[in-house]
Amino acid sequence: MKVLFASSEAYPFAMSGGLADVAGALPKALRKRFVGCRVIMPLYSSISEEMRKKMTFLCNITVPVSWRRQYCGVFEAHVDGVIYYLIDNQYYFKRDGLYGHFDDAERFAFFSRAVLEVIAHIDFVPDIIHCNDWQTALIPLYLNLFYKSNPLYKDIKTVFTIHNIQYQGKYGHNLTGDVLGIPAECESLLDYDNCINLMKGAIQCCDKITTVSPTYSKEILDPYFSHGLDGILKQFTYKLTGIVNGIDTQVYNPETDPLIYKNYSVDEIDAKAYNKKMLQKELGLPEKADTPIIGIVTRLVKHKGIDLVKHVFEELLQKDVQFAILGSGEWEFEAFFNSMADKYPNKVGLTLGFKPQLAHRIYAGADIFLMPSQSEPCGLAQMVALRYGTIPIVRETGGLNDTIKDSGDGKGNGFTFKSYNAHDMQNTVWRALDGYSDKKGWAILRKRAMECDNSWSASANAYIRLYKELKNQ
């Protein structure tokens, strides 16, 4: 079984979010199960010199982009047992940032055609091309339109994973022929809701659709979550399945993590208290061992539930509690938390931006992790928090619902609430703080959390079953 994992980003080369974590971890897990999985991604200018030293030049070809042909360099790198192919074109990829450019449709149309074109020039003809989000959504469509008549490609199947349905690749009809190179008679494959929708094209043309959690696969059939795509998804529910993401348990391992203050394990937990003390010191908070720290590591935007936090934040601060907040996002929320940090310097430790080292230290040093998302396709932070013995508070949505169960029954691994309501969240925080005050019970809960298996093992096996189903094995 050979799988080519097509992604617009992948750790450790380039990342802007959870997709990079998946593209860096799932192929490793698949290879451990004797699936020949390789990754293909763009060669961005932001890739570090350290990673560039791992690359070797394979070849260069030209790639059709509608009526023109563009240069494509192909580089290969070997990292952690996985082979990566990096697609070079400086016009498209030598820019600041991965996304958000005026010609993103053309950039990723080029990349999608390049993924298919290079198969004829490397020693790897995949059984499955696993595509991810709108940036690779054209691959199933291009494969069906332009390549299936070629014996080299005729047996290749495609899987399309929706990591976040909010971002669909919507453009005007004027791009169809001149930029995307889609014949006029095939425009209906992309046409949806009076525009061109690349994700819609992938949903229609791929062989299987996956989402990054079982709950999310059901939620996106509801207009509240689907951002307009529920209509087309309901036509193709026979293709749809949900497989929860895992986390890279080598990167997120309190026993070996070089970014935290002191390593610890589920059986030798005492050093977690030291991590808490040092986190308080780094954030300028009073070093109080018995005061619970609530960690928040997120984008400061509404759909992450930050409006709920804002609504009751000062009420939460009336308790004996401290907050360790790391993130950036909408000005409204950045300004609010800045004002709270100024007003309550002994209770609010705020860092705007994203610092990976501090994120790890919050996971290790906090007691509770707050993640009240309005929607969350999967979420990795809650699983990382469990790994470090930091108890999550989450809303029951998407992957949060699949990975965190309320501990009220004596069996769960966190605290949950259902309604998207600030006071429901607040009441759940109160329950968590009450639980924290019971030191014996909290130690049991923390141990249960750390023993949760959120590795890629189960998820990789689910993907393998899906791949075999496609290949009738």
Summarize the structure in words.
- The protein is α/β, with parallel strands linked by helices.
- The protein folds into two domains: 2-246 and 457-470, Glycogen Phosphorylase B (Rossmann fold, 3-Layer(aba) Sandwich); 271-450, Rossmann fold (3-Layer(aba) Sandwich).
- The chain has helices spanning 18-32, 49-52, 90-93, 104-118, 138-147, 175-178, 198-205, 214-219, 223-226, 230-235, 271-283, 306-316, 331-343, 356-365, 381-387, 398-403, 422-437, 439-450, 457-470, and strands at 2-6, 36-42, 55-65, 68-79, 82-88, 128-132, 157-162, 170-171, 191-192, 195-197, 208-211, 240-242, 293-297, 322-327, 348-352, 368-371, 391-395, 415-417.
- The longest helix is centred in the C-terminal third of the chain and has 16 residues, at 422-437.
- The N and C termini lie close together (10 Å).
Question: Care to give the gist of this entry?
Answer:
This protein is α/β, with parallel strands linked by helices and 473 residues long. It has helices spanning 18-32, 49-52, 90-93, 104-118, 138-147, 175-178, 198-205, 214-219, 223-226, 230-235, 271-283, 306-316, 331-343, 356-365, 381-387, 398-403, 422-437, 439-450, 457-470; strands at 2-6, 36-42, 55-65, 68-79, 82-88, 128-132, 157-162, 170-171, 191-192, 195-197, 208-211, 240-242, 293-297, 322-327, 348-352, 368-371, 391-395, 415-417. The strands form three sheets. It has a nine-stranded mixed beta sheet with strand order 3-4-5-2-1-6-7-11-12.
